[in-house]
Structure formats: C-alpha cells, structure tokens
Amino acid sequence: HTRVERRHVTRGQEHLHKQEPPCASCPRNGRCVPKVQCPAHLRPGSNNPSCHMDNFVGVCCLTGRQHAGEHERKSRTSSISVEDIKLSHDHSRRKLAQWMSNAEKLADKPVHTIVNTTTPSFGHHLSVVTYDPRANKLGRGGLMNLFAAQDLKARDAVTDDDLLLGLTGETDGPFCFPQPVCQPNSRYRSISGECNSLNFPTWGAVHTGFERLLPPDYNDGTWAIRKAKSGLPLPSARLVSSTLLLDGSHPSPTHNLMFMQFGQFIAHDTSAGVVFNTGNGSAISCCTESGSLLPPELQHFACAPIVAATDDPFYSDFGQTCLNFVRVQIAPASDCSIGYGKQMNGVTHFADLSHIYGSSREKLSSLRAAEGLLNTFNDYGRELPPLTERKECMSVAEGAACFESGDNHGNQIISLTVLHTIFTREHNRIAKALAVLNPGWDEDTVFFEARRILQAEFQHIIYNEWLPLLLGPQLMNIFNLSPAPEYASGYDPGLNPSLTSEFSTAAMRFGHSVIDGKLIIPSPARGGIYETISIPEVMFQPTRMRLKHFLDRLLIGLASQPMQTVDPFVTEGLTRYMFHGGNPYGIDLASINIQRGRDHGVRSYNDYRRLIGLQPYLEFQEFSLSAAQRLSTVYERPEDIDLWIGGLLEEPVEGGIVGPVFANIIADQFAKLKRGDRYFYEYGPDINPGAFTPSQLAEIKKVTISRLICDNSDGIELFSQPPAGFLRADLLGNEQVPCSSARIPSMDLNRFKEM
Ligand code: HEM
Ligand SMILES: [Ca+2]
C-alpha cells in the first residue's frame, strides 16, 4: 500500500498563537479563554479582542462555555404567543403517538426490521445497547420537544437563531428532564452523575444530551442529516471510508498498545450514545436480510442506513449494498427548553468509572457484593468480573464466557475486558485494606471509600500519564490539565462538563486509527510468541480470559506491542471484519464513525479549523498530493469534508500524536471534565465535599498505570512492567523493571486510616 505523503508544513499552525497585542482585560464581562472554547458568535463585539491568559494569548469570550451560553439565550429575538406554544405542544404529542404506532407496526414484521443475532450488525447493537428503560422514556420526551421545535419552525413562529439557542422560560417544551433532589454536601459523587453541579444538578448526568462546540449543521436546522454545501446529499459514508482509509501497518515509535486500550476505557466511561431500539430493546434493522435497503415504508424513523456501492471494493463480493445504521436518541434538555436535537448519553459524562460501577443505583446494586466489594467470578482462584446472564456476547461455543460490567459492553474487545478486570480487582484490593484499617466502618462506607479512591487513581492516570502523551506539553499547559503540586484550583460552577458531540463522534475516535489488527500474545517463559490473535476473533468473545496465563500474557503484550500512529490507515479488522462472528464479512467502523458525526449534526472539518484560528482548506490541493486526489474523488468541495476524516489527515501537534483540531477538541473536553467536576480528585475541601487530605492526595499521585497492573495481574507470568506504562517497553530508559522497583511507586493506604 502506498502511504499518503505527509504534508510538510501544516498551513495555518503559525496562526494558532499569533502575538497580537492583547487587551489587559475583556470588555462587557467577557472571559479570556482558548479559541476552541469561544465560537465567533460568543465573542464580544465584532473585533474579537485577544487577551492574555497565564501562559498564552486567548480570546475574549462572553461565556467561555459552549455556543448556547446563558447570556445568548436571553437575547432571543422573536416573541412567541402562548397560543403558538400550545399548538406546538399538541402537534408534538400527536406526532409522537403517530411515530410510535408506526414503529410498533414495524415490529410486527420482525424478519425485516429486527437485527438477526447471528449477523455482524448484532455486534454493533451490543456495542451501543442500553438496558435501562429510563433511557427510552426520556428519549420519547426528547422527541416531543424536538417535534414542538420543528412545528414552531414550520409555522415561522421562531427564527433559526432562536432554535440554535434553545427556547426556554414561557416557551418550555412539553417534556422536562426530571430534576433531582440534592444533598449538597454529600461526600460521594452520585451514581447517576446528578447533583455534581449545585446550580444545574443534571449537568453531566446519565441520559442528558451531548453539548457542542459549534451549532449543529442539520439540514432542516433541527435533526435532518447534513447535506453537501451544493444542496446534494453528501457522499456515502462507506464510499468515504473505502476511498480515504487504507489498511496498513504504521507502528508508533513511542506509544504501546496499552495507550490505545486505556483510551477506549476512558471513552466508555464518558461516552455512550443511546441508539434507538424497537421499544422493547431489540435492535432495529434498516436493511433486508440479504443486505439491501429496506423500502422506506419499512424503515424505522431512526434509520439512516449507509449505502455500499454495487462496485464496493469489499461488500460487493457479498452482495451487500446496505450497511445498517440507527440514529441516537434525543435527550430532553435539563432546563425544559426546546430546540435542535441533542443526542443522549447513556453513561455519566464525568470520568468517574461509570463503566465499572454503573450509572444507576439499580445497576450498582447488581454489581455489589458484601463487605464493600464488587462482585467477581472466582475462576479457580483467579478473580474475574462476574459472568453475565444476558446475551452480551457473540460467542456461542459451549463453555463460552461473557462478563458483566457497569456499561454492558466490557466484552467488546478482550483487551478491554482485561482493563475491567484490573479495575474491579483494584476496587476489591482497596476495600479489603480499608476494612482492616478501619474495623468500625460498615460495608457501605468501605464500598464508597474504595470507589472514591479508585476514581481518584483513574483520574490521576488520565491527567498525569495519558493526556500528556496525546496532547503534548503546550496544550496541557494552555488548558491547565497537568496535576498541581497540591490542591488544584479552577473549579467553575458555571461550566457545563458534558461531552461535546465533536469529541465523541470525531476527536476521541482518533483511537480507531491506532488499533492494531492483531494482538500479539507473548510466551514469556520461552521468550517467543504464544499466539497472534486477529482482533475480530476476540470482539464480544472473551472466553480466553478463563485461560490461566492469558491475562498476564496479554498485559505483557500490550506493554511491548507498539500502537499504530494516528493517520488515515485503519485496520481491516475494523473496516471489513468487525463483529463478523461466523460470517465472511463484518461491519465497517469507519463508515459508522462518519455517519455518526452526521447523525449528531457535527459540522464539516473546515469549520473547526476556523474555530481554533487556523485557515480553512479552500482547495483540495492544499492537502497532501494523494489525500487531495482521494478527497476530490468523493467530496464535491473541501467545505464538505467530515470532521473525523479531516482530523485523521492532520500532522500531529508538537510532542503529541493528534493534529491541532483533534487536540484542541480533546483538550477542551478534558478541561471541562476537570473544571466542571466538583468531585475532581485534586480539589480541596473548599470545593469538593469528598476532598482528600493533602497527605492522602500525595499518595494517590504516586499511582501509575504500571502500579495498577503490577498489583492486580495474576502474578503467574507478569512480574515486571515498564515504568512509563503507556510507552513501549523497548524504549531506551523504559525497560521493564520488577514490580517491587521504586520506579513503580505505590500508594500507602495507611493514610486512609480514619483518625
Ligand atoms: C479496541 C477496539 C475498538 C472497537 C472494536 C471499537 C468499536 C466501537 C464501536 C462499535 C463504537 C460504536 C460506534 C457508533 O455506533 O457510533 C465505538 C464508539 C466509540 N469509540 Fe471505539 N472501538 C475500539 C477502540 C476505541 C479506542 C481505542 C478509542 C479511543 C481512544 C475509542 C473511542 C470511541 C468513542 C469515543 C466512541 C463513541 C462512543 C459513543 O458515544 O457512543 N474506541 N467504538
Ligand atoms: Ca462516566
């Protein structure tokens, strides 16, 4: 395969921090923030004044939050009559009833409209399914509010601008997100994420919507999928994928595969779009059993199937012209406002290990054991996550294992199941130690204290070890992401921590480019390779976990095997064979990523270049030669390029591995998850009612990913780790050291003995 040449100079990068004379302070109560946090329409005045931040030049912003800031909302232009509102509510109720009844009728024809559990599409369903009935109930509320907005728009009762800002107050929608009752001083973060923000108690909670950096690009302004700038449909997501993305191995010279695996682990904690289902939880199919498009009248309203051309380089061999794709449900807004569709997140947005503990009380109680422990499955002395009763795996063989997790998709790939195992064991290790140190504690106290410590360890590893290797030093600095020497400052009670659609559908999916198509399982005793696994063989098929040596060997492999670089190369294990099960073909994750961005109404790549102060690409020729050629065969104009694709084509930022657009979107997100999380592990008692003491915090800050692995692997074959656990173990200075080495420090749990 020919490698797409890298561009030598990233055009416009020099503009990123241009040294204009900054204002001493911002006018009209503006705040000084990095550009990505302030779209042009939130900047005071037309001249976008720049300003000094501690360590760089920022831009004056009215809110510094997201595009639908509180300030803007007050300046709604149109006045809407009470009668109009009532009409829109009536309309929306009628329309919901009609849509639901149509969907139920389809369920009577299940052969065509429900995904068969032996097909690759079922693996996709397992990746996105939620078993929480609350999601469907809220999703119906979200649809109602959307319909009301659409109706007002159709009758010209509101302007497009108003819809972008969200209508609230006397124009409340027919459905409100239920408001929780909070205990402001609770020592522990809630399970659902509610009550983290005291002013806006649903911010960051499960089942709330994704926010966004820029207003959406929906074709109808409310929910319809984006069109090309010419007004024609965009190129099929599959065509973009098969033309732009090649298979090919480009190992990272520095990062190991554990870096990749930890990335997915963070993604699953924070992001899980809730896809529409038939109403009783079954997977909707938009394609016939033989793989062609269902006629429109048989398609569920949430269908947005991806068309594969009859000459597709792969799917044509199997006569498949329809790739199943179902849209994400709409969340009702926390403030009862109505506006364009915001997609629903099925986990808490915070980095709080919701995929270990669940995002609801019911889920948590199903995961808890006595004495403050998490349930495990004791497999001849090895503790694994508990086996699940539900069909959450694709393996059918006798004795096949399938494990429970807080988010129901811990089985997606076996290296992910390994991390679930490590974190579950660490919870139990801490809980047992705490119970010994504090014999007076009841089991709830032991449980929630262990959870609080584990969440802190996790956050520390993200901000201290993982993010710097992704973003490089400059963005870590500008966004103030590095851990502080003691307590951190900067909590912002007015900052919505929610994930942005741009982060979830594009930037954080850089991770799909760094996956290797093979997992190399070493044979430590013999110094060779025990087994090379093609990744689709271990997706939703985690039975190897039960082999005595497997966990240790895989962990040794993840530390030494290089990750792939971020570029337009994605393994066929994801673009052709993902979840193939017993079939000769699987599904294409790349086209799903592209379609998902369009589902969320994410704007085209150039708009995010503008947002961060880079020049947009006006001609395809401005990309590298081969990328330009490929881009121009699928897209009509550079202004149509999907964000995920544009981001993968960028050169990495200095010291990081993703380009400037992805890096800014990711840095912004992790800044929100720090400054907008009252329970962030580094905050002192003035902010966090569950704050650690300075000496406890100092212990937590000793923890590294390598320590977690050393303490919770099986100790059958794994006795050492590289000190920097996300870097290749063959890097000079990062060679494996024994787990007892001072270069892999431990936290002293004695500091957690109650005085
Ligand atoms: C290891 C193998 C992996 C597989 C098989 C996999 C597969 C998938 C699938 C099937 C989806 C759902 C797509 C959709 O319907 O929109 C998804 C979503 C996602 N993936 Fe991966 N992924 C992997 C690794 C990663 C990694 C390493 C990262 C990041 C570093 C990552 C980040 C994400 C994100 C952010 C989402 C969106 C989640 C949501 O909001 O629904 N994934 N992935
Ligand atoms: Ca979470």
TrEMBL record:
Enumerate the residues binding heme b: H512
Stored InterPro entries: Haem_peroxidase_animal, Haem_peroxidase_sf, Haem_peroxidase_sf_animal
> Keywords assigned by UniProt?
Glycoprotein, Heme, Iron, Metal-binding, Oxidoreductase, Peroxidase, Secreted, Signal
Any GO BP: cellular process involved in reproduction in multicellular organism
GO CC annotation: what is one?
extracellular region
Does Iron show up as a keyword for this record?
A: yes
Pfam families attached to this UniProt entry: An_peroxidase
- Chief location of this protein within or outside the cell: secreted
Q: Which PROSITE patterns match?
A: PEROXIDASE_3
Molecular function terms in GO for this entry?
A: heme binding; metal ion binding; peroxidase activity
Q: Where on the tree of life does the source sit, at the highest rank?
A: Eukaryota
Query: Where found?
Result: Secreted
Q: What is the name of the protein in this document? A: Chorion peroxidase
